[in-house]
Amino acid sequence: MSDFDRRKFLKSTGAVAALGGLGVFGLGTNRHAFAQSDAATDQPEVIQKTIPSTGETIPAVGLGSWITFNVGNDIELRKQCADVMSAFFRSGGRMIDSSPMYGSAQDVIGYGLDALGAHNTVFSTDKVWTSGDGASQIKETSERWKVQQFDLLQVHNLLGINENLPLLFRMKDAGQLRYVGVTTSHGRRTEDLIAVMKNERLDFVQVTYNPVDRKVEDYLLPLAYDRGIAVIINRPFRGGSLPERLQGEPLPEFARELEVKSWAQLILKYLISHPAVTCPIPATTKPAHAMENMAAATGALPDEKMREQIAAVIGVLV
User: Fold this and answer.
1) DSSP letters of 62-77?
2) 3-class DSSP state of 57
3) Rounded-to-integer distance, Cα 171 and Cα 178, Å
4) What is the mean pLDDT of residues 242-265?
5) pLDDT by residue (tens digit) across 165-184?
6) Sequence-ordered strand ranges (E) for the chain
7) C-alpha span between 154 and 158 (Å, rounded)
8) Which of 256, 272, 277, 279 shows the shortest CA–CA distance to 307?
9) Degrees, nearest 5: CA angle 62-109-89
10) For residues 59 and 63, what is the distance between their CA atoms, to the nearest angstrom?
11) Which of 34, 69, 83, 136 is 20 to 30 A (C-alpha) from 94?
12) How far apart are CA 280 and CA 234, in angstroms?
């Protein structure tokens, strides 16, 4: 990335922060029917982020399902997960992310979508992670979700990428898939992912990023910005350990400017204020937390100076 491009990239952080104050809910082509029909009329406008490859916009916070939705056939726990999904949708959310390796999570999402009648609301996001028959795995995943077509499928942790990435591109070309992506997690295989980003026309990448794990800020996020690749953020709370470590600590004084009520909201605002970030996907078992997380995608966002303050404060506390 040239020095000029890097300056433009950093400057745009301020533009995103200003946008957060204005609220841009409803500018995209896919305003979600579930939230539109059932949400309270005084619900704050949800910040939307643009998918560069198409211009479509999606809400700036999503919902993960790792561990939290792996509840098997326990009907009460399935209902609890459906309640989380309901709270998420009613607060303006759309993207739900899962994987074949997340136990029963895919089945539970399918149960929730049926219970809520929300198949036309969700931005369905899943993965293929087999080194064998990816097409069969995708078919099974679709049956579990009870969807005809996924919005986004990703090669999970680059596994079988030489077979699975061409498969996803063929599906996209055939109109069987809207977007193609690749994922990594825990900061692993970053250089391999960068190589794929340089050589393939990806729509999305998914990486680990939070105010403590900032490696992707150095090169990967600017590259995604330059290449027009949307970025999903996994482990925004380090699997829940960040809010746990910060529990009981007072929020910094400057956080009042953002009107946040929790460390989780402050972390999410830190993430979505980055101009290359499209959608962090925190997971939760509690409807109230799903609503709290979505509230981070409303109101003002930190500028570059405040982002550094957030990272510094959290770095000291954890």
Assistant:
1) -B--TTTT--TT-HHH
2) strand
3) 9
4) 96
5) 999 999 999 999 999 999 99
6) 48-50, 57-59, 95-97, 123-128, 150-155, 177-183, 204-208, 230-234, 279-280
7) 9
8) 272
9) 40
10) 11
11) 136
12) 6
Q: What is the DSSP letter of 152?
A: E
208-240 in b/e form (b: 16+ CB < 10 A) is: bbbbebeebeeebbbbbbbbebbbbbbbbbbee
Collapsing DSSP to helix, strand or coil, 52 comes out as coil
Closest to 237 (Cα-Cα) out of 278, 195, 284, 202:
284
Name residue 62's amino acid. G
- State pTM to two decimals: 0.89
7, with CB counted inside 10 A (0-12, 13-18, 19+), is: exposed
What does the pLDDT average to over 50-72?
A: 98
Under the phi-then-psi rule, with left for phi > 0, alpha for psi from -120 to 50, and beta for the rest, what region is 49? beta
- Lookup: tokens for 146: 């009870």
Check residue 41 and give its pLDDT.
39
pLDDT in the model for residue 187: 87
Q: Which residues have C-beta within 8 Å of that of residue 57, sequence separation ≥ 6?
A: 24, 27, 28, 29, 30, 48, 49, 50, 51
Res 40: pLDDT = 42
Say which amino acid occupies 254.
F
Residue 149 scores a pLDDT above 70: yes
Q: Which pairing describes strands 204-208 and 230-234: parallel, antiparallel, or unpaired? A: parallel
Give the pLDDT mean for 51-55. 98
- Among 172, 223, 170, CA closest to 196: 223
